[in-house]
Amino acid sequence: MSRETKVIAVSGVSGSGKTTVTKCLGERLRNSESLFFDDYIWKDAPEDLVKWVKDGADYDLWNLDTLVKDVMTLFESVDPPSFILLDYPFSYQ
């Protein structure tokens, strides 16, 4: 039986409840894995986040390779989860 992994990204500003929502979803959705943005060390991230936002919040200034690698590892695993939950501050409309 084949199944398709779905990614659910929970985004919002700092302090908006992303982590809480992601943890609650993880408790309710069977066969899910959660990745939390704050669990990563962002070596090439902008130092001044306020300036980064004022300058247009260019997401390309963040090196997200480690997070992308972890997502792909889950997708490509022998028994991938039904859901990958991302606690992630960036989003598009």
What does this structure look like?
With 93 residues, the chain is α/β, with parallel strands linked by helices. Helix content is 31%, strand content 16%. It is built from three helices and three strands. It has helices at residues 18-28, 49-54, 65-76, and strands at residues 6-10, 32-36, 83-87. Strands 1-3-2 form a three-stranded parallel β-sheet, sandwiched between helices. The longest helix is centred in the last third of the chain and has 12 residues, at 65-76. The mean pLDDT is 89.
Tell me, briefly, the overall form.
globular
Helical run tally: 3
Unreliable sequence segments: none
What order do the strands of the largest sheet run in, or round the barrel if closed? 1-3-2
Number of strands: 3
Strand content: 15-25%
Q: What are the secondary-structure elements, in order, as H or E?
A: EHEHHE
Largest sheet data? 3 strands, parallel
Instruction: Report Rg.
Output: 15 Å
**Cα-to-Cα separation, first versus last residue:** 34 Å
Mean pLDDT: 89
Helix content: 25-40%
Structural class, by secondary structure, is: alpha/beta
